[in-house]
TrEMBL record, chains A, B, C, D:
The entry's keywords: ATP-binding, Glycolysis, Kinase, Magnesium, Metal-binding, Nucleotide-binding, Transferase
Entry similarity comment: Belongs to the phosphofructokinase type A (PFKA) family.
Lineage: Bacteria, Pseudomonadati, Lentisphaerota, Lentisphaeria, Victivallales
Function, in words: Catalyzes the phosphorylation of D-fructose 6-phosphate, the first committing step of glycolysis. Uses inorganic phosphate (PPi) as phosphoryl donor instead of ATP like common ATP-dependent phosphofructokinases (ATP-PFKs), which renders the reaction reversible, and can thus function both in glycolysis and gluconeogenesis. Consistently, PPi-PFK can replace the enzymes of both the forward (ATP-PFK) and reverse (fructose-bisphosphatase (FBPase)) reactions.
InterPro entries noted in UniProt: ATP_PFK, PFKA, Phosphofructokinase_dom, PKF_sf, PyroP-dep_PFK_TP0108
Pfam families xref list: PFK
Cofactor(s) the protein requires to work: Mg(2+)
Species the sequence originates in: Victivallis lenta
Molecular function via GO: 6-phosphofructokinase activity; ATP binding; diphosphate-fructose-6-phosphate 1-phosphotransferase activity; metal ion binding
Domain Phosphofructokinase: 75-383
Reaction catalyzed: beta-D-fructose 6-phosphate + ATP = beta-D-fructose 1,6-bisphosphate + ADP + H(+); beta-D-fructose 6-phosphate + diphosphate = beta-D-fructose 1,6-bisphosphate + phosphate + H(+)
GO CC terms, sorted: cytoplasm
UniProt-recorded name of the protein: ATP-dependent 6-phosphofructokinase
Annotated GO biological process: fructose 6-phosphate metabolic process
Length: 431, 431, 431, 431
């Protein structure tokens, strides 16, 4: 992908000339600090030798001088799209950073995503406080409620104006970020000083230019219980097959990580790797499976929801309310096709099917993943207070970054079949 | 149910006249010790006053004098039917009690249930030792493999004779116990001194005359994760409904216990309680649900797999290889009918469906449930060594008992809708 | 222990002549229903033949006719003593049964045990509602706070009078129950119609006449993590010893159950079984340990806090604020004595010490244990509404029972070293 | 710290001129590929403009051409120092990569760290295979056993020579890496072509030039259970204080992360931040605590084992067998000093002390942390096969790296009190 250095530039609402209210011992970030996109020293040197600027993200973090006057601020937080571990952590830390550190007097929680910004929904916002967000990180889901689907940008900006909201935090996926971009654009057109910051939520970890998304590690860990159960079911029956469907609409990172974390998984099917059911050659799944069953009499298979979509008869494409392509259920298809194939060959087979998706995405966030949520939220607030807008908070090579929404949503991150990750998966599976 | 005192009598292979090899400090059980079926003092007194014998189970436990000479014994263990937490615990403690306490020289693990007793299967048994069973309780499933379906009784007894097996432990459900009964009968016909002991496995806790079955408590605890996730999904979407299907083919004990353990469950549907989808009155599910959604905008529903079977169009009955009636999938039916009904009423609804069965049954057993497995296995060995046969190891009012297979399999235990359990469930739900 | 039939009689405040407000479909309990203390049929028959009454507990459960008029009731709940999994479950279900089923208008939560009944503490009670108790079962501890120590009975009854409290629920151990007894006596002396019901809390499961106490099963399961870690530490070092201290002041049930649930535990030390450190014979711990270490090079030992108290130099006895004997720390003593002994013998040893107590007792309650809490609480309310007082809610042979406080606190339940439980523990350990 | 570009150079045993046996589709790493130490674009550009080389680590990964001929290889793996989640994962993946991918015929597991390389220990190595390492990642600890302490370098190299070992993997901390360096040096002196690769194990995450160490994230997650229990204990008693001691000998990363992941922690004490017990000002702990208790009546405190060492009376320094400074027990000191201080002020206080260390370090590794172990091990094998030696496998900005042992052990990584991490901790605590 060719990128221009302008791709990395973050819009600013104006000059940041107010003193930050943060404790003076805070390690404020220099406004020009960056995180280079590349890491190879030779490549980096080449940019300079050719007289080019090194492509780099703006480094996130607290600024000594800020744009918004906290005492005049009103903030709003919303969550959109499907559940993901950590949503409540992010809500909690947005609230505590806005109120506790910057002394922003009012933080609203908007109900059910963008819908709550449409007065027709009659969904009154919640006032978020330390008290009502204190324990929420211990429960999964989102206390604000979420929804898919879009609302009219003009209507939403009207609401922001009427409520005097000048800091808007939108936690959600691609669609949510695009919507945030539209709001930021419309606010700019109207001459409003609203910082719109998107906090990227993708349990699939599939956002380009962001090396890690919150909830992903918790999801991988949660899949292990199911993988272990599938292994027990596979070994507990003659010619047993444990088949586990995991999330991963367009990218198979959860499936790949779960495979490496649970080395008894024998087949890892992801959207990036094409395969056929029947036929010959290394990409024909069922013949490979027959061969393994005859040899080992059990198998464990993990399949990302977006894998093998090309196997379905060509139906007209369907999209959900967020505009995502609705996938046919590959788990059910595989379960049925495996049974059919073995029956045809008159070989006994016992397929046990596990659908993990809601069970994985609806739990709370744990450990280092929760810390990641906390820091993501804090940096989102720092960015907003410094007057940034139309951006997402990212992470690159161990640093939090500012990423323009346009760049973050340009394309999805996918597993590179020539990467070390996939090589490792290949080495520990048989397909 | 009317019962005769003969219903409680356990067949014995002969007089137990050998000294037990157990440590002399062991609290041996007197051979006449019993556990009364009833507990109400007035009712108990009435039996005596009327000159009747108090109906009672034989008390389980080690006997000071045993029937089988351990040094001449060969034991075999098999697991049949679906997985259940604790199978490996039982296998482990059967092995350690037989070998460690009674010094039985050989314990075979039969592969894949009764199938492994049919030489046509070509499934050689495993020799079970302390070494190869040491850690198995930490993993779910069964190291022996399991299967459904029956084998010819004569063929199986031929195998037992050929292998000189005189102690057979069959871990499984109703079907398994009936098969064990057939083997015991056939062995008797042939004049063989084989103790056939069935260890009741039913994750549904639905065996009559047995107040608690292994794996049940672990299953209830495992359902909580899903119930909690369902609650988060329900609250995370506008008009969200979390729908959780749990095990419970004929009896809804898991659903009822999970409801009491997770008090945010609003609907508990079990086979014992009939309901209709539409219509009027207190048993019409969908109108009740509509009313709740309009009021609360979220609901959590747990449904046992055997609930609402009468809702399906009358199809010809189908049975699986174990002879169990195959149920239509009530979870899927409810999911679809709810969506349809709300669509018809033009009310938004977001149903998130969780199918827990394999995930719950394939895990390891925990805590007191594991202790229960250990003691069940030890008592099974004590019974076999004392020359009992054609029986299952049961539990009644805090004591382990001997229960004739015919009694244990006579009918399934079901939730009494007038019991305190169901009253409690009613009190904490809205249907 | 000889018991008189009067030992089982529960005081009643007066005739229950009001109709219960519970749903008429409720399976009301007949007021004369009982649960026999014995279970052996022969022993039961003998009572009758000798013209004696069968000793039996009153059966717990809802009565069709009650004593207290719910609309005039004020209830209070308190928790005393150390934490135990399930306290919040009991508080929640007391509240929901009182308010939801009996429509008692006010339920107070008394802060920090009996202290909150002393106005000098200036601790205002909380009003408990469905809203503020809805989620509390998901967290450990007690939302009311707890304390040890006694308050003046007269002062406390003054408070109950001033607050018009006529239903008092005291969740706690022996000391708490004795205090509840004193309050009941004082109320009787003053002619007050106050039902005082004690809900037995003992993580050690050591109450006589009660076969199971809440939190015990959760505690056993929680110990497994530590036992597993101790096993890893023991095997991870040359001559490694994993030493785990668990709760069990006077009775070693947790240690015994944890041993059976985690069969790699090699030594189970409980208060009931005396042992010496040095010396000879089967009760000398250190020589046995040396022998094992020389043979196996690792060992796992679990020790109840009350074990081996006789090993300490005779110090003057000390008691804590609840009047419990303060034990010397046997875990630390063993750790040090083992190190010393092996050093003396010039054998390398690596002792890793785990103290589990607070970590085990402070977590939430799970699964069937949570259901047990719910039913215990419901039955406590039924008993109070029916006009019972001066009693604890017990459990015997699968039934909930009413047990007079004097009987319940007469002596502690201990492990019978000739029972099947201890025989099983012996069989799976080496000491 | 000033660094020279030579600090980053990895010794090579010779020219890698054999074709790698890995699947040709593998994404081989170019031998000159690097990972820049710095990430700020301006700083990177400045190096080039000044004519300097950009400081950078060698990038880890499989090479198309390797140095060792696999069919002639013998590998050995050892674990040294304290337990850490993931040791068995690393052992497993070293084995599977060596045997499965490179077809190295023999992989030895050396028992109990370097001790197993001293023939005087009479500890025979284990032959590691796919079979005996298949499930080991599901258990904590190390199947090889570990030990502290050093052995004579010459003796160990004699053993390597006698056993024909040319690939040595040493999993351990600083001391282990230094010892590996000595072995590499001695091997070089003797002209032996032995690749010595150290895999950094530090649950404290305190190795400089390595941004993440295995087991750390699992440890942080495991601390949450204890923090939650401490919170329950603190709130469950009047003036309750939950005090949790965690690992962190010289660096407080676990304490800091656990604080951010569990936001009810009010005090986070780490070695990097000095404090006094009494006195005045912002660094006086006890007065701050008194003030909080008077206001809130409960507090949760987490303390790294190495915090507050300056509070102990100056005793002669002591070191353990690995040469680590033995710390006085700050947890016990705090517990006692807090009690003393409040007693002096005549304020009731209830301190509940949790020591987490063994319980945290002895469990298995989960999720993404397990994937990290897998990739660390694979890269260690790639490095060895490519002829690298005297290095550790590191991780920097999302890439695996080669780090010279001398650089990795130069100094410990510590929390920068001016970093965003510490600022975040400060913001969520009160001290």
């Amino acid at each position: 992908m060719t990128m221009d250095i302008k791709d990395f530039q973050i819009p600013r609402l104006g000059r940041a000339q107010l003193d930050s209210p943060l404790d003076p011992s805070t390690a404020f970030i220099d406004d020009g600090a960056t995180v280079a996109y590349d890491s190879d020293a030779a490549k980096l040197a080449e940019y300079v030798r050719k007289g080019k600027t090194i492509p780099a993200f703006e480094l996130a973090g607290p600024r000594a001088r800020i744009y918004h006057d906290p005492s005049w601020c009103k903030a709003a937080v919303l969550t959109a799209g499907g559940l993901c571990p950590g949503l409540n952590d992010v809500i909690k830390f947005l609230t505590s950073t806005l109120r506790g550190q910057y002394k922003v007097p009012i933080v609203y929680g908007i109900r059910y995503g963008y819908r709550g910004l449409n007065p027709a929904s009659k969904l009154a916002p919640i006032v978020l406080t330390d008290e009502n967000t204190d324990d929420i990180h211990e429960q999964g889901g989102t206390i604000l409620g979420s929804s898919r689907g879009e609302e009219d940008t003009g209507v939403m900006v009207d609401t922001l104006m009427r409520m005097n909201i000048n800091l808007l935090f939108c936690i959600g996926g691609d669609g949510t970020a695009r919507c945030a971009h539209d709001i930021a654009m419309e606010a700019q057109r109207r001459g409003l000083s609203i910082s719109v910051i998107s906090i990227p939520k993708t349990i699939d970890n599939d956002i380009s230019f962001i090396d890690k998304s919150f909830g992903f590690e918790t999801a991988v860990a949660a899949c292990s219980r199911f993988a272990s159960g599938a292994n027990n079911e596979a070994k507990g029956a003659y010619n047993g097959i444990g088949l586990v469907r995991v999330m991963g609409r367009d990218s198979g990172f959860i499936a790949a990580y779960a495979t490496l974390a649970n080395s008894y998984i024998n087949y890892c099917l992801v959207p990036e790797r094409k395969f056929t059911l029947e036929g010959e050659g290394p990409d024909a799944l069922l013949p490979n499976l027959v061969e393994r069953m005859n040899r080992k009499h059990h198998a464990v298979m993990i399949v990302a929801e977006g894998a093998g979509q090309e196997l379905f008869d060509k139906l007209p494409e369907m999209h959900d309310a967020s505009g995502n392509l609705i996938h046919n259920d590959i788990g059910i298809l595989l379960r049925d096709k495996i049974r059919e194939h073995f029956k045809k060959l008159d070989i006994e087979v016992n397929v046990k099917y596990f659908d993990t998706s809601y069970a994985v995405r609806s739990g709370p966030c744990h450990g280092a993943d929760a810390v990641f949520c906390a820091m993501l939220a804090q940096n989102a607030v720092h960015a907003a207070m410094a007057g940034r807008t139309d951006m997402v908070i990212g992470h690159w090579g161990d640093h939090f970054t500012h990423v323009p929404i346009a760049l973050a949503t340009r394309e999805r991150k996918k597993i590179d079949l020539h990467s070390q990750l996939w090589t490792s998966v290949r080495a520990s599976t048989c397909f």
